[in-house]
Amino acid sequence: MSKFINIFLNRNHIKIKILKKLLPVNLFPMILKEWREMSAFNKDDDFVFNGVKPKSPICAEAILDNFRKALKRAGINDNNERKIVVHSSRHANNTFLLNKLPEKIVKNMVGHKSEKMTEVYNHPDWNEVLKGLQPYKELINNVWG
Fold it and tell me: What does the domain layout of the chain look like in residue ranges?
């Protein structure tokens, strides 16, 4: 079992290979075009993120290390209470998209097979949820009084 995450360019998305399974990650065509032009390795079967040696994939530990450095530079203190990891950005992106787009579109964009899985990745802002309930405050008070 490999500890490497292999990332390949493919049309308008990249595919991340984790334990023999390729997961699509959508990129805007404009970003992908710029990425390819800047990279020395820009063929469809080249790695997007190279490891220490050319034509070798970057390891998961290097990705996590760089992610933690980026959190620190952004002033985000991960004091191990929240366990912020690279995968956390998938949850954040899913929640952001669900606040802007219909669930069916988000499901297709993030590569989920069901809307139920898309909902699992949703972490709503409870202040917004409570604001949405304000018109029903009297009814709620009568029921739960």
Answer: 1-84, 87-145
